[in-house]
Design a protein that fits this description.
Blueprint: H1 13-20, H2 23-26, H3 31-47, H4 53-71, H5 84-96, H6 98-102, H7 109-146, E1 150-155, E2 158-164, H8 165-190, E3 192-193, H9 210-216, E4 221-222, H10 226-231, H11 235-261, E5 269-270, H12 289-312, H13 327-349, E6 352-353, H14 355-360, H15 368-377, H16 382-396
Parallel strand pairs: 3-4
Antiparallel strand pairs: 1-2, 5-6
Helix pairs in contact: 3-4, 3-7, 3-9, 4-5, 7-8, 7-13, 8-11, 11-12, 11-13, 12-13, 15-16
Length: about 400
């Protein structure tokens, strides 16, 4: 196997591993997307006369073969390949000969990586939108079943005023709907095709057809400025992880509510058996492990977002190898968010609200503000009404 670049001296095996890091593992995620982009690129090269019909047919067959191998878990990317892009070209060169050696015409590994990542990001944003929409539906279903039940609302973790299940869970619905708007903005920004920007300075001499490849790959538009294509590496990843962080923030807060409200001391809700675990020594325990992990993983995703932004800050314009290290955080942050949305869906699907426990918790102090405002309605100045009710509550204690 050989890399996509050349050197005069022999490779240092240790440094080869250092340079490749874990890309040969991570890039299994990108094989299908790179094949998709390579197929569009090959068809464009045929359109401008670089490939003849037989060569295009060979490459089409070869790329489909790679996709099938990858789908079956049989496409091997070795550390010496460095990444899926080299592994794919090596495979095509071995199976298609001259055509395989022509496939890289008019592109760089820079825009090749960008395009595969951008296709992956579009797919994952679509999955995120679907799961987030399902999350709002799951919340709405619980709200519809139990929404009229009153329970205490809290500020400073102390009972404050009466609220309802509808208002409580509705706040998380509204938060998720805002996240969907944010996601739509990121989708629009990601939907730009970088293929054909090469190493960040465009492709001289050859009259490549960037509109053709963008259209075939389903992008809304071409990313016109080739240098910005390189600057956007890390920017788009940071934006995507920013959406994930916002989604996870909502899940984190909801998980905290459900953990607290399901304790014996509160008892407002009962969690389904599928999201609780037992203790190895205490027979009575129903530990909300799933919700605790959702709560904790917000911090994981936020950390991945900050990692990407920190890695790409202070770099001069153009490509810098630092951005290679953004791939792992991106994949982990997105997959974590998708998994947590699915897990919260299981929790919500089996959630019960105990109306009796909620009603019992509505003690007289929770209605203090309401009593003060009733005095105001009868003509008492608010500050006088406030002091009167405060004195009554102090005597009650």
């Amino acid at each position: 196997m050989s890399t996509l670049w050349t050197r005069t001296e022999g490779p240092n095996p240790w440094l080869e591993k250092f340079l490749a890091a874990d890309d040969h593992i991570l890039d299994q995620e990108l094989v299908g997307y790179d094949c998709q982009a390579s197929l569009a690129h090959a068809r464009m090269l045929h359109g401008i006369g670089v490939l003849n019909p037989d060569e295009l047919a060979q490459l089409e067959t070869g790329l489909v073969e790679i996709q099938d191998l990858a789908a079956a878990g049989n496409f091997v990317i070795t550390p010496s390949d460095e990444d899926c892009h080299t592994a794919i070209e090596n495979h095509l060169t071995a199976s298609c000969g001259e055509a395989g050696r022509k496939i890289h015409t008019g592109r760089s590994r820079n825009d090749q990586v960008l395009t595969a990542l951008r296709l992956w990001e579009k797919q994952k944003l679509s999955e995120l939108k679907e799961l987030l929409t399902n999350h709002t539906i799951a919340l709405a279903e619980v709200r519809a079943e139990y929404g009229t039940i009153e329970l205490p609302g809290y500020s400073h973790m102390q009972a404050a005023m009466p609220t309802t299940v509808a208002m409580w869970l509705g706040s998380y619905v509204d938060a998720a709907q805002d996240d969907l708007q944010l996601l739509a903005t990121v989708e629009k920004l990601v939907d730009q095709c970088p293929l054909g920007t090469a190493a960040g300075f465009g492709v001289p001499v050859l009259d490549i057809n960037r509109q053709q490849t963008a259209q075939e790959l389903g992008f809304a538009k071409v990313q016109a400025n080739p240098l910005y294509a390189q600057l956007s590496r890390g920017k788009m990843e940071g934006l995507m992880l920013g959406v994930c962080s916002q989604v996870m923030l909502g899940l984190n807060r909801l998980a905290s509510d459900l953990i607290l409200f399901s304790t014996r001391e509160f008892g407002y809700v009962k969690l389904p058996a599928s999201v609780v675990t037992g203790s190895s020594v205490m027979p009575q325990k129903r530990n909300p492990d799933v919700l605790e992990l959702i709560r904790a993983r917000f911090h994981v995703v936020m950390g991945e977002e900050q990692k990407v932004k920190a890695l790409t800050a202070s770099l001069m314009s153009g490509y810098n190898r630092d951005v290679q290290l953004t791939k792992g955080p991106l994949f982990n942050g997105v997959s974590t968010t998708l998994a947590c949305l699915q897990a919260m869906g299981v929790a919500l699907a089996g959630l019960d609200v105990d109306e009796e426990a909620c009603t019992t918790a509505l003690t007289a102090e929770v209605y203090a503000t309401e009593r003060a405002l009733k005095l105001v309605a009868e003509g008492t100045p608010f500050r006088d009404a406030y002091r009167q009710i405060a004195a009554e509550e102090a005597n009650r204690r």
